[in-house]
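## retry 2 of 3
previous attempt timed out at serialization; input unchanged, resubmitting
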Amino acid sequence: MKFENIKGSIVAMITPFHEDGSVNFEVLTELLERQIAEGTDGILTLGTTGEYPTMSHEEDASVVEHTIKVVNGRVPVIVGSGSNCTSTQLEKSIQYQDMGADALLLISPYYNKANPEGMYRHFAETADAVHIPCLLYNVPGRTGCSIPVSVVEKLSKHPNIAGIKEASGDMSYAMKIAHCVGPDFALYSGNDDITLPLMSIGGSGVISVYANVMPAMCHQIVADYLGGNQEQALANHLKYLKLMNDLFIEVNPIPVKSAMNMMGLNVGPMRLPLCEMSEEHQAVLRASLQEAGLL
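## retry succeeded, writing output
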């Protein structure tokens, strides 16, 4: 399915594991089918929520292959191919494109960071080399660096860069890049708690952690807002805001995988250095799930 400025809820998929740490493809199939059945508008695999930093390149490729096969063109599949090594990012981007990905998510170069020109080249060289759309991923809380506004402005004019996942949580930054939004450059919220504010300045929806837990509701909130029923969208957003926030009570994806296990979805453990939640936080999260009617 061709990626064309999707409007809606794109789920940032978790990666389910067996107890021995291997990828659980049977549960992955069930989760993908659940997402599609409940109206998710797009699938992102190998994002932060998918624990890709602890997976081998071979495991990455097998998850991408399986996801594309199961989804089978019913919704677009976006694949996280970013790296802090531009040559690795380029290699993975071409590989996933050839496997059938509909779009790519490219993170800013973490740890080594970059000056503005290096940051620009990091994204532009990959976008030049592939023919499927690329989305920028700004998440300074993870990477230690934000994509400069000037770089976003320049990249928004690139014919193969289709948008940005803005996950800084900084509305001032979002406002500074909002003028870049148009038919060829989309803005997606990377923070569930500010999806509506981002849409109010031209955003097309959300790339969501919360959608792993309540895919139908996440889709409905965005659809209502974009469809003009903003009062209902706000009511539902506020109703589930505590759960959205509690899904970040510890480092993502620890809470969301814990929540899904509590719900009986059997997604398994995290891989180290991520581990189980504290008992105190488990109690908080369980209470939020009960309040939301999920337990």
